[in-house]
Design goal:
Mean pLDDT: 87
Order of helices and strands: HHEHHEEEHEHHHHEHEHEHHHEHEHE
Shape: globular
Oligomer: single chain
Low-confidence stretches: 18-26, 168-187
Strand content: 5-15%
Helix content: 40-55%
Length: 354
Amino acid sequence: MSGVGRQSHGRSGFLRRALAGAAVAGGAAVWTVAPRLAQTRWRDGVPEVPRAWYAHRGLHDAGSGLTPRYASGGADYVALARRMAVQAGYGAGESHGDAPLAPENSLAAFAAACEAGYGIELDLQLSADDQVVVVHDPDLRRVAADPRQVADLTYDELCGIPLFPAPSAAGNAVASSAAQRRTSSVAKAGDFQHVPLFSDVLGVVARRVPLIVEYKFTDNRRWSDRCELLMEKGDALLSAYEGPYVVESFHPGAMGWYRRHRPEVNRGQLSCRGDLRRDGITTWAAGLLAFDWVSRPDFIAYDWVGGDDPSVVLARRLGATTVSWTVRSPEELATCGSWFDRHIFEAFVPPQER
């Protein structure tokens, strides 16, 4: 064979190997991020993610997203949250003083969202006495100026800690008896808001609006008996609930649990972009949906800024519903609206039609 022929043969061989490698890599990517198959969803009787705007941690007047950055839309949003909370029977309007009526992840915030007709996104954790409670952070520092961990506090102790307390409300809260605090799950006017039981939240929502329920863990790289217990207890409450809901988690193992135990439930993988140097390889890979083969989700809940990332686009093309978190302004919605099928929002009042 001539030198030119050998070079040509070598180039064609390299090209074939490169194409074969690309095909294998592409196939692996598809297999990795692929959602549950449409025929499997049909077989399992899985409903779609209900069409709704989802209020992040309820429709709230204190908490997540209410920062100077979003002040232009936040005033209307807060006014709506307070108006809907009063309409639902919480607080006493202007006489409520400087304390929030409906802080994030409170019964009042969830009632306000229901009054406004919004779906709700919320977070589940376990208290020290193994009660399923609704709270986002692992500790109460941000929401109550209390550094203690949720997992170290019993539900009775959580009842005595007001969420986002005004100075005047904090003193009144401490003076309340345990019995009076416990009745705040049902008694409304004048009560301060605390971390609620998930069962009480379900009672307040009462099938009126759809829910996105997140199972929250402090370490999404490990699985423990406490993780298993949260899954079992949270799902037991949802199994008895007759309203519409879907479930999600950053932990692929949590959605893997639903894949094994409750295939009829619509399940979602939460994720966001990761930085390899800052976050490490596991978090970075999770941002690429590299662990979706564990959960085989029905929907992808992704940070709104990453809705056009290739892995999210691929998952959507393969049949996954995409849900944004958390959109906080009309400008952000205009940027990401075409990337997502549903939106979790806060800090602005979304358009009426969705």
